[in-house]
Amino acid sequence: MKSWTDLETIQPVAVKMLMNSLVKNRLAHAYLFHGPRGTGKKDAAKLLAKSFFCLNRNGAEPCHKCRECSRIHSGNHPDVHWIEPDGQSIKKDQILHLQKEFTYTGLESNKKVYVIHEADTMTVNASNRLLKFLEEPGKQTVAILLTENSQSILNTIRSRCQIIAFQSLSARERQKQLMEKGIPESTARICSTLTSSVDEAISLSEDDWFAKARKLVIKLIEVLHEQQNEAYLFIHKQWLGHFKNRDQLSLGLDLLLIWYKDFIQYQIGREQAIVYDHENVRFEKYAFHISMQKATESLTNILDAKRRLMANVHSTLVMEQLVLQLQR
Q1: Which of 29, 115, 176, 315 has CA atoms 20 to 30 A from the CA of 249?
Q2: Are 89 and 121 in contact (CB under 8 A)?
Q3: Measuring CA to CA, how many Å separate 200 from each of 90, 120, 178, 196?
Q4: Domain range for residue 305?
Q5: What are the percentages of helix, strand and coil residues in the chain, rounded to 5?
Q6: What residue range is the signal peptide (predicted)?
Q7: pLDDT tens-place string over residues 130-160
Q8: 9 and 136 both lie in a single domain
Q9: Quick one: 118 and 216 in the same domain?
Q10: For residue 103, pLDDT beyond 80
């Protein structure tokens, strides 16, 4: 259960602004929380709703124990509405339904909060309908829009919101949080490099599929540089059988990218920046036949493979071409 104090350790500026507004009873009628995934936007929205409704609030901090806090925490408060994308987008009908809900008197007070998650996915019609809603705010209504891409929000909507920026956590901060949860340092370092979300990093660290993925990436490195004749067979026999969809293959390419970045860090003497800290022996071994230019070209090749994958090029073709490029 997160408190404002907990969240302040990773988002001091955003939390300070919100806490000051709560203490002074000067909440805006609409907020736009923007920032990368995993930076605490949803936690902040839930805390703001709790503080708004809490029966025993202490300054800005909700008690987390009263009936109002408990129902918000469980997602069952009748006057707190969460809007999520319906498929790939938030549609006009969802905003119309929200407006209809808000025409009714609150079940226990006139306070109402609505949170629109992934607000940048709103269709044009949904955005226009929301704009009309924002133009006539209720006195005790708070709107909270969450997005990773604030530039996709209509300027007319942005202008009616108080914009709160949520900054990315550094990989070091994420690693520290993971290690505090008992995750081994080497695993915490890799997982915190792959994602900006602590929760996602924890899920990766506990995933047997991910553990095998890491081993396959190291095996691919060995095959590429020690058993080149086996590379094509390895891709078809082992790699593609494990990385079965686009997201999985993209993650595998990210792991491969990290290895080559680490090789360059090793070559220029920045061992403290290395993620694969158990690979130093292999870095030293391959330093004799992988030049800095070749390592840099490999990074470019892997990034290009990721772009082709996102452009829906078949995964088999992407990997076959990449292997040929990495072997040159």
Answers
A1: 176
A2: yes
A3: 24, 21, 11, 8
A4: 207-327
A5: 60, 10, 30
A6: none
A7: 998 888 777 789 999 999 989 999 999 999 9
A8: yes
A9: no
A10: no
